[in-house]
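Reading is simple: the token line describes the chain's fold. The lines below illustrate.

. . .
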Amino acid sequence: MENERFFSVPLAQVEVTDEYCKNALAKEIAYLLSLQEERLLAGFYENAGLKTPFVRYGGWESGLIGGHTLGHYLTALAQAAENPAVPSGDRERLLQKAKNIVDGLKTCQNAVGTGLIWGAPMPAGGIEAQFYNVERGKTDIHTEAWVPWYTAHKLLSGVIAAYELLGYAPALEVAEGLGDYVCGRALGWDEETRKTVLETEYGGMNDCLYELYAVTGKEEYARAAHVFDEERLFGEVLSGRSDVLDDLHANTTIPKFLGALNRYLTLHGKTLGGEKVDALRYLRAAEAFFETVTEHHTYATGGNSEWERFGKDDVLDAERTNCNCETCNVYNMMKLARGLFSVTGEKKYSDYYDNAFVNDILSSQNPETGMTTYFQAMASGYFKVFSTAEENFWCCTGTGMENFTKLGDGVYYRRGKSLFVERYLSSALRSEGMEIVQESGFPWENSVRFRVIRAAEPFMLCLRLPDWAAGYPSAEKNGAKINLLEVGGHITVAVKEGDELTLTIPVEIGMKGLPDGKNAFAFRYGGVLLSAVLGGGNLRTETTGEGVTIPSGEKKEVSVKVESLEALFEEPSKFFTRKGERFEFHSEPPLVFTAHYKQYRERYALYVRVEE
């Protein structure tokens, strides 16, 4: 099965040229450059007994989860330093910041002497106190422990990224030191302690430890990763029973299945401890989980959950509030979709990734400030609330850093001599044997053009037939119309150096309901979700949870009437008049819709109740 995998083209080979994405990247780079790595390292120095003139940042960074941001930040720096769309001068500064962080962590690690790197304020008991407290079931997030294994995952992932993407050797030394510390704890747990630990959010510890095993080949990391594999949960999801995810914390749960998938990717068919590993069950668990989430718990944006938790299957309309769709959840679901596509090549995973990228991730950033969302309300009448530069440092602030430094991820995949295009996004792919330019007009135009500038040999160009297509596409190669061959949901065309290919896909208004929502519909134009423009003014906010800012006010329904629901279902485009990027809905009262990802200063309605 190894030879059948699809390999995502590395970030360093993909330059995104789409104008909206270029701005999004520029805003993210400006933010990364504005942060002082010394302040993110300050807590690590303090805990290692080393003097530093710098003071840690506030918000979550001043709480017991402090240090998690540095892990995300390091991953984002590594991605940005490799990103060809970032100006070379900025890439050099970002690279230096990444090296400074790794060097600082190494200094702290040497001073501590156990392999542990830790930046959160210390509760009673010293630098390891949070880990001991979790093992004893003591988890008051203000005085005892705030998900230390989640933070360890972010740190380990960050240093691994610095090594894998930048090739900076000291990063692997730090990663192995932290990995050894984790092994020393996890491999010594009895079953009761293990059960106690796994009841607390531990991020993707299995995922990052399998990754560390893949990098080093050291079996103890794979054995420690397996300690974090939650077999009971995997079995429940594989059982297919209803409501299996009810009341589970979504962003605690999703990474567990990333780890399950990574066990398959790194170990299936290999020998570990003298025995051949059969990890097919873990792939099946990841597939079943993805199916459960997307079919029974997902909104039109690709987001899920209400106040961070899954509900009962198919109960979505009833849970539309001002606290839906935590951005971290989508970040992790997209990683899962990407991994599952790499194994299976099934188009549904790319369909999800593309939809979530456009309608949740792009939607999560303020294009003026570069700040990002925690929640995105699915209830009507609310608005997006964004983080601040130095006061919040939410989990979603960290994943936001990563999201907008890897905008070219998942656009192109290679499999043998075929190149698969899974996202229609203006970009250029440049590798040793190939240069291809994609010029996408979607969604406002209905075609995309590919120019093969350089190719060492002819190859097959495989273009995803998206789930939003309003009809079968047509294509021209070098100005002449060609017959199309569809294989596995992809249009497959043989091309060579110098060829130009234009693919045209019909684009119309589509609509999507909710399983429990009477006449509640979301509308999209092609792959872009639309939301009704409800105006600004009096955009009051309030705080919930641990300093999370949300839009304030009562939930309101937006209801309209049309002449015929049957006619609307049959051909929704007839009920809209397009004017540029705005769409007038012929309803009573009339509504104006626009691309949801571009709505960031006004109240909106994603779902509208339509009656006749």
Summary: DSSP finds 17 helices and 26 strands in the chain. The radius of gyration is 24 Å. The chain has a mean pLDDT of 97. The CA atoms of residues 175 and 309 lie 31 Å apart.
